[in-house]
Amino acid sequence: MRGTDRESQIVRQVLRAIETGQGLRIVGGGSKAFYGGHCTADVVLNTAEHSGVIDYQPSELVVTLRSGSRMAEISELLAGQRQMLGFEPPDYAGRATLGGTLACGFSGPRRPFAGSARDFVLGCKIVNGRGEVLNFGGRVIKNVAGFDVSRLMVGALGTLGVLLEVTLRVLPVPETELTLVYALNEARALNRMQQLSGQPWPLSAMAFDGEFLRIRLSGAEAAVGAAAAQLAGDIDPDGDMFWHDLREQRLSFFQLPGSLWRIGMAPASAPLNLSGRGLLDWGGALRWLNSDMPAETIHAAASARGGHAICYRGEDKSDWMRLDGGLLGLQRNIRQAFDPLTIFNSGRLFS
Amino acid sequence: MPLSSAFIQKCRDLLGDRQVIADTESLRVYECDALAAYRQLPELVLLPETVDQVQALLALCRRYRVPVVARGAGTGLSGGALPVAGAVVLGLSKMQRILAIDPENRRATLQPGVRNLAISEAARPYGLYYAPDPSSQIACSIGGNVAENAGGVHCLKYGLTVHNVLQIKLVTMDGELLVLGGGGLDTPGYDLLALAIGSEGLLGVVVEITVRLLPLQPRTQVLLAAFASVEQAGAAVAAIIADGLLPAGLELMDKAAISATEAFAHAGYPLEAAAILLCELDGMPEQVEADSRRTRRLLQQHAATEIRTAVDETERKRFWAGRKAAFPAVGRIASDYYCMDGTIPRGQLAHVLQQIGALAEASGLSVVNVFHAGDGNLHPLILYDANRAGDFEKVEALGGRILELCVAVGGAITGEHGVGHEKLNQMCVQFRAAELAQFHRLKQAFDPLGLLNPGKAIPSLHRCAEMGRMHVHSGRLPHPDLERF
């Protein structure tokens, strides 16, 4: 995987923005421009060319990359060593970059079983809103020195600084994976997922598409075979393709017109009973909803179940996510602590 | 400056006399945590029983500008709960109820004073357990685990506290109650849950925790392998990880640790070995058998002189008994020991162990190594005699050099014990001034008056500047040319 070091150009552009007071819109591959609030900054800071491997030690299960590296290329690099990113992020047809993926904090179907994007981040190098280049975390899997700023960057939508380099923990590719499929209704599918999750099966994904419950088993061939035999169910010969399409949000469900919501809640929560179409991932902890109901109704339904709703894609993003009063004030203080002049991605996280 | 009588009276009004400790005899209990080398008698200890009381107390402390040191079970090893002059100690030990076990969602909601082990005990009837298991799990509390991002023997496979907590309720210095995280897995906005975990009491006081529970594994197997050199054992660890195996635990003990524990716990360890590895594998029986075969093959390839597989649960427990008794066993061969905590890339194990040996010899001190090799988390135990004048200063200096060695090879000054009071100087080695300044600004976002656990975890820039001069003058900072992460 080739790459170029654009750190000094990026830092120079940040310093210039600080001088002129002109806000920057951070763009990697541009694959997730639809996500988050409306960004009011119009000068683009491009990170896509700041790419490449800094260090990859397969025997340490650790890789350090520049933030503009394409997810697809990273996956290919790791696959060459029979390793992978455990959080199974989408690569959006090869466009997604590592920086954008982490800034959005996107994780795929393996997330409840292997961990989220932030769980795999060990360290990072950033440039903050003062133009300072800072290193946090490191390259070892246990490190509790100082505040965990590396993980704070994940999901911050670029509002705390520009990610320059990231160190990630990687996982070995499982020896075998196999998908079982069951025709069930939503209530039974939810029930079945909770029952399986409470038992020590080698699960690595569970999703219900409205018609079929699919579960993926991962591990040694003998273990996966034994689990499949005990769990009955039909083997889905196209299982790998299903998980890939779910990860990339390419299933027909994701092509429906209208607003698409991601609702996170405790996995055993009862069905949402909102009008629209749904898809369950993460064993029930993530409820995708395609619905034209008002944002107010959807936020209230999520909140009533102790969860959170995020308008993932939609025409009206004015109420795309909510933070309650105390949290909002604190989050603004944190932003101030990193980016006092609001240089980065103004409006993208909160207005 | 002593606490004002008006403030103390207000505390008594809020809590009642039973929950306020002010007499010297009782205060002694709180003068240190498990890092007993550092002591400071607190002036006042407050023991709230409800979230409301915590909120009211913090608001009161803010009004009177009184600093607050939160304390769980006091088992921390970095002086995080060491009292600070002029501050109150806020003990959370009376808040020790398990609020809910929710088997359907595989989670438990707890007050901060609940003991770590009690969570797994309460979850066991449902076939579930709480994975992080610091060695003090019989006594340490979940609130303290959250404050320190505690690890344990099994975090190689199951992660640290940060990977196993779903939600916390945090009281800010203003007395406001915040919910971080939630019922789902990811929440919008900044990930304050990840930030708060391991923040060592600098950002807020944790009053409720919801943890993730995991299904108990049907099969657990332990292998014990002996090696003729520590280097070979280190190479075997790297090979196991490189091969794609993910053991539940992978522990290394050197010769000194083997002989100390054997005399104490009679685990049947091979006394002639220079090092032993304990490798625990868990999962479905078929998975454990497959992993066990692969592990044995790798251990053989890396010159293990002997490989034993625990034939039954009794033998498995015996294999672990020695490891678990290692610290008390070392306590019998030396009047005092100092437990260090640093992490390194696994490929550096052999090199670093050799260097630690050389540094120890140069200091005239003995070091025993027993640690979580699988995740590169070292716990060198430095033996000394606290009653011998000057010994502890030598220990501190050696400990500091060992941590600087960890940083120089690309590691960190603490893997799971935290910085607390103990490792403030080493923070100056791990981070540059601009990064420390960013930490201070982040703290101010939560605690603008700097009242929460002041002086801990993040050193002042002034302190580092002083230390930098010291290091340059004595030329002790190793590898100054290496970039520091």
Strand and helix map with partners:
The complex is a heterodimer of chains A (351) and B (485).
Chain A: H1 7-20, E1 24-27, E2 43-46, E3 53-57, E4 62-66, H2 71-79, E5 83-84, H3 98-104, H4 111-114, H5 117-120, E6 121-127, E7 133-137, H6 149-153, E8 162-169, E9 171-172, E10 176-183, H7 186-197, E11 203-208, E12 212-219, H8 221-231, E13 234-235, H9 239-247, H10 252-255, E14 260-264, E15 277-281, E16 286-290, H11 295-304, E17 308-313, H12 325-338
Chain B: H1 5-15, E1 20-21, H2 24-27, E2 44-46, H3 51-64, E3 68-71, E4 88-91, E5 98-102, E6 107-110, H4 116-123, E7 128-129, H5 142-148, H6 155-158, E8 165-171, E9 177-181, H7 192-196, E10 205-212, E11 214-215, E12 219-227, H8 230-242, E13 249-254, H9 255-265, E14 275-283, H10 285-301, E15 306-309, H11 313-324, H12 326-333, E16 336-339, E17 342-343, H13 349-363, E18 366-372, E19 377-378, E20 380-384, H14 391-408, H15 424-430, H16 433-446, H17 461-474
Parallel strand pairs in B: 2-4, 3-4
Antiparallel strand pairs in B: 1-2, 5-6, 6-10, 7-11, 8-9, 8-10, 12-14, 12-15, 13-14, 13-18, 16-20, 17-19, 18-20
Helix pairs in contact in B: 1-3, 8-13, 9-12, 13-14, 14-15, 15-17
